[in-house]
DNA sequence: CTTTTAATTTACCAATTGGTTAATTAAGAG
DNA sequence: CTCTTAATTAACCAATTGGTAAATTAAAAG
């Protein structure tokens, strides 16, 4: 998978609260599909679909144990997410965005009060 | 916006390479819609739609300057993304997931070779 | 006032998404 | 062999998504 496609799939997989809850559950240890479905008011096939999305994004792997299909967290793709978002850290930490807003606002007001400059 | 909804909107906004490219461009300074559209082979309305998605996620803010509508990066929501993903850092850094895979594999093989245990 | 430029809105389309119910597969248990 | 449990597949549906072309708004420029 091209790195760009991987990020697409990962972000898309994370954009659903049910799937994020599934990952949170798996962070505490492996679980069967039924165990994963238990906290949610949706059908088993819906869970299966969510798991497929997570699997295609490489965020979980699945085993086989009798009639159960245990899911395990595979956090690897989250590293790329962390790397990607890290590029923007300075923008929220140093509040560069707010600073720019402020400077722009100042400038706009000055032009309003002093249009000939 | 509830924090959960905010994460949904942010992750969904980031799940598109065009929108990520727009954010990368805005990290270098504000830009008009036309400037943002220039690198892409898609129509202006398509860009407008992408900008609306980014705006609803709170990732950009927009000004008005004559007939231009300059966009600015607003990285605030990315902090929640960083916080969320940070919870999973130990899983990819300490390779806990791989370790579990390995142990499970070992166990499975043992059961295959030694079924009566 | 007319024209040009920037951008948005509207209306439409095909593909994807998140959900459902019903049917099917797979494996263990009586 | 039959029944039960776990899970998936298939078929379907409504809503959303990412795109288009055409029309519209907004403001500057001739």
TrEMBL record, chains A, B:
InterPro entries for this protein: ArsR-like_HTH, HTH_ArsR_DNA-bd_dom, WH-like_DNA-bd_sf, WH_DNA-bd_sf
Q: Show the PROSITE patterns listed in the entry.
A: HTH_ARSR_2 (PS50987)
Query: What region holds the HTH arsR-type domain?
Result: 1-93
Q: Which Pfam families match?
A: HTH_20
Name of the protein: Transcriptional regulator
Q: Its gene?
A: arsR
